[in-house]
Amino acid sequence: MTDMKHNLTCRQSLASAFQALSDEAVKAGWSEGDVALALAELAEERVVEIAARVIMEGSIHPQLVASGGRNG
């Protein structure tokens, strides 16, 4: 599991690129509110995708181990 310090370091490394992306969208004519909401929704979708993959890999992996790594 990711610790708080590691998460903060990751956030800091992404902050300038995130701000630049937001700034570009505002320059393109989108409101700050629209941009913030869209970015939050995209981030949420990404979290859901990753969580689903982790769940699927966790449920598939033991089956693969039990079958000796063979599919089917």
What is the approximate shape? flat
Rg estimate, integer Å: 19 Å
User: What order do the helices and strands follow?
Assistant: HH
The chain-level structural class is mainly alpha
Helix % is: over 70%
Q: Specify the biggest β-sheet.
A: none
> What percent strand?
under 5%
Query: Could you name the ranges where pLDDT drops below 50 across 5 or more consecutive residues?
Result: none
Average of pLDDT: 85
Summed up, the helix count is 2
Q: What separation lies between the terminal Cα atoms?
A: 31 Å
Number of strands: 0
Folded structure, characterized:
This protein has 72 residues and is an all-alpha fold. It is built from two helices and no strands. The mean pLDDT is 85.
List its salient traits:
72 residues; 2 helices; 0% strand; flat
Structure at a glance:
The protein is an all-alpha fold and 72 residues long.
Write the layout of secondary structure elements.
Layout: H1 4-27, H2 32-66
